[in-house]
Write a structure and sequence with these properties.
The protein has 476 residues and is an alpha+beta fold. It folds into three domains: 124 residues, no CATH class; 77 residues, Signal transduction histidine kinase, dimerisation/phosphotransfer (DHp) domain (Helix Hairpins, Orthogonal Bundle); 163 residues, Heat Shock Protein 90. A five-stranded mixed sheet has the order 6-8-9-11-10. A four-stranded antiparallel sheet has the order 1-4-3-2. Strands 5-7 form a two-stranded antiparallel ribbon. The protein is built from twelve helices and eleven strands. The longest helix is centred in the middle third of the chain and has 47 residues. Helix 3 packs antiparallel against helix 4.
Length: 476
Amino acid sequence: MSAAPAQDARRPRRMAPQLGLLLLAALLASHALTMLALQRAGPLVHPLARAQALERLVLAYRLAERLPAHETTPLLAAMSGAGTALRSEATAALAPFPMREEERRLAGELRRALGLPERAPVWMQLERIGGGPAREQVLLPRGWAPLRLHSSVRLPDGRWLNAIQHPAGGYEWRRLLAYSLPVSILPVLLIGYLFVRRVVRPVKRLADAAERAGRGEWGPPLPLEGPREARESTAAFNAMQARLARQLESRTRMLAAIGHDFGTPITELRLQVELLPPSPERDDMLESLAELTAMVRETLAYVRDDAHQEAPERFALAPLLDGLARRYRRLGRPVDWHAGAEAGDASCLGRPMALRRALTNLIDNALLHGGGAEVSLHRDGDAGWQVDVRDRGPGIPADWRDQVFEPFVQLATGRSPDAARGGLGLGLSIARSCIHAQGGELTLHDAAPGLLARVRLPATPEPAGLADPLRTASSR
């Protein structure tokens, strides 16, 4: 198996987890973009730490301005400590250099606080404690290092006030994220979950109802809940279900009337023909009337679609197939049946008698055109179960495998001598209709030699004590 399907299997398939992950990713991305923007354009030093550092420099400058050097040195030493070093020296610790915007802003604020002119020699250098630039990339470990501020201010007597301070950063990301992530993400996810649940619940109910309607289970109208779009979709589904139910009911009544109206004149014609003297013409007319009677009966059965009249239930597939094979063997028909190792767990939610009817049509076709049938049951991956009916006949050309599902379509070329009078071309149509009512699919494949009819049915969890559907049907 390739890596791509395995990766897709790990992704959430439901709407709510997908929307939740999308919302979480959006919140994390917004935090990341905010960090990048502030790191590139926001203030590097925290406002309180900025004010404290400038006040300390102003106080040290006023002391060094008013006192002689021998008195200034011990006072500046007393003001030092806890990451701060203040000294009055003959030379500047910082040589003149082009200051960056943040450093020029700090120097300008210090000049204004001291009342110095704009071009007074004040130098300030802001860097990381590792020596790197202050605006380091936030995604690099160096960008999270503490800040260090070097200052050199010329005193009125020609000496220099040199200082080293460690102001707090404007955005200490570890501390900020420790608070901002839970505070911003958890409430948003909770509110988003409630909103998504309100949106997803009517959609899920609508999907379940649509699946049941596809199997011919007409339920009560769905409640109109959720957002406007969900309510409109639910209302449209309710109206569609009501229209379909009325159409099916009208069609059934119409077909019952047609069957009654056709049956009476056909019966009268047959009685009149039987009163005629025996002759080849009489036999031909009786055969035509019998064919017309069968056509009417089979057509009504096809259009009425008995699969939609049977109540759905859970049933085991293996007993159904085993009962069919036993019945054919008792009649002396060559039908072989075998199941895969996991077939004992095969169960399905649907209409067992309708499925039995569809499989009977497929087996009869295999016996008629191939002289024998091989029936097998296997698991169809995680999707459900697979029933194969194979024969050893001439098969069906590839370009006809879709057309043979249409009503009254028959292929006489290459078929058995009995095929021309074996039916009306409704067997595969009825079989596909019954299987579609189970939520399954019927396809035809080349078996080289022969034809393979493959039935795929969705799997359902098997409850304890599944009954044999054939015995259940026979006891009704």
